[in-house]
Amino acid sequence: MHGFKLFMRLSPHVNVRWPLTSTAYACTLIQLALTMAQPMIFAYLIDDVLIEGDKALVLPLLGLSLGLAVLSILFSFVRSGLFRYLGIRHTLDIRDVLLRHTRAIPLPDIEKPGAGKFTALLGMDAATLGNFLNHVIVEMLSQLFMMVAAFGILFYMDWRLGVVAVACSPFLLLSPRLFRRPLAGYAGQVRTHNEEIGTHLYESIEGSREIRVFGLEGWEQGRNESMYRGLVRASTRETLFRVMSYQTGGLLISAIIAVVYWIGSSQVLDGALSVGMMVASVSYLHNALNPIQQLNNFYGELQSSEVAMARIEQFLATPVDAYARNERAAEEAEAEPAGAEPAGAGVGVEIRDLQVEYDGVRILKDVTLSLPAGKIYAFVGRSGSGKTTLFRTLLGLMPISGGTVVVGGRPLEEMTRKEIVRRFGAVFQESYLFRGTLYENIAIGRLDATEEEVAEAARLADLGALVESLPDGLRTRIDHKGFQLSGGQRQRIAIARALLRRPGILVLDEPTSALDQLTENEVMDAIRSSMAGRTVFVSTHRLRTIENADRIIVMEHGRVVAEGTHAELMRSSRLYFEMASTFETEREPRSGSNEAAEAGVGA
Fold it and tell me: Is the CB of residue 401 less than 8 Å from the CB of residue 558?
């Protein structure tokens, strides 16, 4: 019953498609009714034809049996097709719900568990829920209908046989409870092991370079073997308990049928029951008891379904971030988000006592900044100083623990995700490239952009030589994550994507780390030109880019420790002076740089 309660709580997330579902269930009931008529036909065949010798009934009875069998097959064909279609659609429904919820929860809650959890959730768990709805429930209801109908017919034929069958049924129904707890426990362990293996296999593929360079093949195999042993152990024990549960039911059914044969044989010998009716009664007894056995067999599947549904319910209970809540509230109110700026306008940011923490660790501490619109701001600091966290917070990717952030006159925590997307554009140090063409990867910056605008964005990002070298230009297909491209080429595609967007605020988090100094200068000049009048936040270790900023913000240990121009900070901030001395060594282009000579794929 717990599984059905879980499903009822999850049912609002699934489009049941009642017309198709009702048709499928109607076909199921008709098919079962046709099947239930067969034993009675053969009872008449035995009594009236084989015993009484009425040959005239042979063809009619066999024809009726064949006709019912054909109809049963036709209805079975329709129901199977409908339930298969519904199973796929329901799996896709819940997968879509899970994916949309993934987009609404805080980003750290996605990054921390690893890919394995979400692969299992969107894959196995979603499929298990679809299987529960269109296989487990269907078969359980079908077997229940067959059981009730068979018991009714048994009582009609001979009430004593019906009493025996009903009296023995509770033993069959209760036998699975002996195995319920271990089955649930091992089913949960199997899910957990599969999730961990999925995460580690993903790491093994993504970390192939490091595994080869450091010779970690043996270490990797040992780690995987340890996880495989846990999965094999849990899976084997789960299977053994399933078999024990099923065989226990089978033993009980054999004992009950033996009792019925004993009673039925006595009645046949006494003339109270015909041979045909005894054979039919045994068939109906099978029809009454086998569903109970099948229900026991489904008990293991029900346990697996409960585990999957509990995981789905737990995930859907993960609180969404403030921006997703605001978006839902705006949709319910059918209101347009407030605070929209004219196209091309710069956006200012005011930060007061901002605090950001995750897992109890405070990352940003009382950050206060006034950043008027239309200027370029460079953020510098040692690794771990909080620059990336600040950028992620402004982009709505990290929850605010305290303080306020006002963007374009509107509190960030009151904004919807769409408002944030409209105001901000971003380039990360490791930007993701999607499987598709080079054109498509740039165009996702603004989906309604024209081909000329996409080509211009590519030119501004210094992608001209790359585009000319490719066989199909902008229409060349890119492999997984842009595997055939160099790091610098991937970064410039991400920059083109951001320039195409022309946002009010452009956030650049180490956007040119894979570019040589000469290429970076050209790209940054293009950014300054195309973002004129708009606001740019940039984090970089390149001194020329820092010097050209209108204002420099120095961060250390999650705090802003200094701000000003390059000249001012060289005099007033020892930390900045030390970092600038380090940056100074990067003024000149690196000799032999691959980026300076890039002209083709993977150059």
Answer: no
pLDDT per residue as tens digits for the range 510-551? 877 767 777 777 788 888 888 888 999 999 888 888 988 999
Give the amino acid at 250: G
* 75, pLDDT greater than 90: yes
DSSP string, 180-246: HHHHHHHHHHHHHHHHHHHHHHHHHHHTHHHHHHTT-HHHHHHHHHHHHHHHHHHHHHHHHHHHHHH
Q: Which amino acid is at 548?
A: N
Tokens 């065989």 correspond to what residue?
Answer: 247
* Number of residues assigned to the chain: 603
* One-letter amino acid of 274: S
Phi, psi of 300 (to 5 degrees): -65, -45
Q: Could you tell me whether strands 424-427 and 505-509 are parallel, antiparallel, or unpaired per DSSP bridges?
A: parallel
Q: Which amino acid is present at 133?
A: L
Classified as helix, coil or strand, 176 is helix
Question: Which tokens in the block code for residue 490?
Answer: 């991937």
pLDDT in tens, 394-448: 999 889 999 999 999 999 999 998 889 889 999 988 878 888 899 999 998 898 9
Q: Round to whole Å and give the CA distance between 183 and 204.
A: 31
Q: Kindly report the pTM of this predicted structure.
A: 0.71
Backbone angles phi, psi at 504, to 5 degrees: -70, -35
Give the domains, in start order, of the chain with CATH numbers: 7-318 (1.20.1560.10), 373-395+413-589 (3.40.50.300)
Which residues of 208-359 form beta strands (DSSP E)?
Answer: 349-358
